[in-house]
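User: Could you go from structure to sequence for me? I need the amino acid at each position, not a summary. Structure tokens:
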């Protein structure tokens, strides 16, 4: 009886839309059968690929074929234009109809495993015939983080865009072109720019307009790790929603393992200012290689100035003594106009344009009185003074921040016993919030980031004496997918360790817990002790892989657990244990 009702009657009740929705609703979250490699390279198009069905186009009409661009979109018909070199709202609305999962200047690199694939599938059960295009491990032209995304097109006119977790920071976008995701009938379509990610909770209905898209999404692609269904509505547009049951598994790293190094710093920007004016801090070496940081006093009056110090310049100077520090010792330093010293004369880089924490950790050892974008050629002075054979002072006096009226006075004092002092007069950072300032010490040469410390609130503070922190990371390509065994690598295992332990917490901790009170100084607990899995380390292996079986229970999709590794390392701490950083595991079906 139901099947004999006329189509117009079903349409009036919206039931024809339910039928058309079956492709987007009942199809897979992600099609793993990629099909044929289209052998696309930079700015290339596979023209006129047959779908095996007539796809209902946005705005009306159908097409039996598509043209696939390496730049992250498909033309709904025959078109050889690659759409270089960025997602364009104007072109989307004025040119031929297209669907763009991630329109950007992309470059599949076959040598690096990047490719664009195409496959078609016959109708099966309640899933209509479909065609699938997959951009696998492609990067923006110029390099960057590989990303994978997919377009599934169904014979009922619905389609799905699937975006694997992408880079969440601008490092994916080395050039900074605009990206665009969405659909349009083109040919003079009415604009309809939306925030697609906001449709995650409540579906978005575009009404009579079949154009809907998000643009300017190149700084942190917020569609990464999501699957979106576009279903034709009864008005000629689309209903956009998260595809149910398609949570992506993801993993993120947080915290730092132990033993922690002696690196200590505070990072400032133009929005928060600097609170170091008229203060001093003493850094006194400990017996185990770290430092005790205490409030100090004193400012050596500079006796002279170094002539002609320019902006972005560094110069070598010899100390009258050997200055020992964690990680080495030196008789030579190099003074940078930018407010810091290298603890070796061979490192010439002045590190201009403000402080960069990553460069701070990866470059050789340095001490920063106030590393920022300074310009001594515009005023002020820099002085190098030696007192006897045991003390040296490097002083920046009224040196302006580049392009501002901010004048900065501060000093680094080095002593032959390995202690040093940072002293500040009037200092300020008033430039753009993008430009940073940094004060502190690092042994450098690729150390872990211990996080910014409020130096004015911390004293007395004891830093660790160094060593290589224990690390826990997801194995290459691994994600915590339900029904699989999630593989994790424990790296930088200290010599003499006899056992590795994986800690898994299903109950979130209220915050990191300092383990110093239980005999693990400078170590931190990041995961509740809900589950423990031990693995022997025969022969003192420096690394080991541990698998975590995850149940195939869709109800757990989207939930998070925390993981952390530990090793039994006799003599490393009073408790003979070391701990790693933490991992946050977001469980998913993909």
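Assistant: Here is the amino acid at each position, in order:
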């Amino acid at each position: 009886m139901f099947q004999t009702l006329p189509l117009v009657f079903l349409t009036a009740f919206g039931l024809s839309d339910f039928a058309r929705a079956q492709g987007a609703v009942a199809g897979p979250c992600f099609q793993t059968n990629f099909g044929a490699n289209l052998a696309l390279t930079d700015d290339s198009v596979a023209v006129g690929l047959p779908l095996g069905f007539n796809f209902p186009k946005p705005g009306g009409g159908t097409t039996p074929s598509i043209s696939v661009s390496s730049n992250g979109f498909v033309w709904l018909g025959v078109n050889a234009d690659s759409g270089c070199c960025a997602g364009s709202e104007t072109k989307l609305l004025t040119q031929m109809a297209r669907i763009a999962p991630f329109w950007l200047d992309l470059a599949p690199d076959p040598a690096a495993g990047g490719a664009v694939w195409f496959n078609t599938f016959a109708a099966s059960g309640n899933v209509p015939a479909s065609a699938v295009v997959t951009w696998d491990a492609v990067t923006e032209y110029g390099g960057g983080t590989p990303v994978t995304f997919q377009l599934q097109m169904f014979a009922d006119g619905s389609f799905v865009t699937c975006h694997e977790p992408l880079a969440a920071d601008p490092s994916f976008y080395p050039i900074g072109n605009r990206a665009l995701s969405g659909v349009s009938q083109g040919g003079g379509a009415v604009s309809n720019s939306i925030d697609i990610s906001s449709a995650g909770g409540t579906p978005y209905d575009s009404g009579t307009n079949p154009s809907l898209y998000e643009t300017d999404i190149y700084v942190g692609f917020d569609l990464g790790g999501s699957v979106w269904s576009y279903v034709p509505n009864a008005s000629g547009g689309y209903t956009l929603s998260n595809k149910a049951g398609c949570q992506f598994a993801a993993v993120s790293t947080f915290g730092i393992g132990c033993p922690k190094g002696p690196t200590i710093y505070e990072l400032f920007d133009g929005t928060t200012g600097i609170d170091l004016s008229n203060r001093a801090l003493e850094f006194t070496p400990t017996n185990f290689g770290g430092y005790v940081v205490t409030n100090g006093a004193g400012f050596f009056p500079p006796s002279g100035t170094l002539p002609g110090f320019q902006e972005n310049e560094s110069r070598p100077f010899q100390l009258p003594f050997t200055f020992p520090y964690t990680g080495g010792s030196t008789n030579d330093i190099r003074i940078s106009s930018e407010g810091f010293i290298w603890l070796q004369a061979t490192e010439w880089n002045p590190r201009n344009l403000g402080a960069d924490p990553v460069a701070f950790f990866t470059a050789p050892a340095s001490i920063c009185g106030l590393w920022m974008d300074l310009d001594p050629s515009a005023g002020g002075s820099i002085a190098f003074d030696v007192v006897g054979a045991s003390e040296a002072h490097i002083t920046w006096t009224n040196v302006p921040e580049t392009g501002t009226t901010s004048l900065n006075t501060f000093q680094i004092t080095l002593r032959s016993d390995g202690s040093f002092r940072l002293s500040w007069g009037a200092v300020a950072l008033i430039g753009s919030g993008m430009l940073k300032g940094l004060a502190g010490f690092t042994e450098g040469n690729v150390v872990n980031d211990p996080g910014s410390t409020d130096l004015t609130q911390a004293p007395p503070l004891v830093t660790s004496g160094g060593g290589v922190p224990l690390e826990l990371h997801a194995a290459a390509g691994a994600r915590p997918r339900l029904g699989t065994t999630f593989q994790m690598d424990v790296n930088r295992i200290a010599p003499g360790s006899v056992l590795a332990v994986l800690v898994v917490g299903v109950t979130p901790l209220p915050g990191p817990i300092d383990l110093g009170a239980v005999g693990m100084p400078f170590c931190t607990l990041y995961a509740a002790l809900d589950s423990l899995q031990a693995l022997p380390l025969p022969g003192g292996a420096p690394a080991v892989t541990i698998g975590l079986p995850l149940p195939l229970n869709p109800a757990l999709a989207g939930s998070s657990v925390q993981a952390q590794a530990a090793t039994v390392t006799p003599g490393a701490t009073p408790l003979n244990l070391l701990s790693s950083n933490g991992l946050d595991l977001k469980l998913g079906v993909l």
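One structural detail worth keeping in mind: The chain has three domains: 2-245, 251-256+469-586, 264-462.
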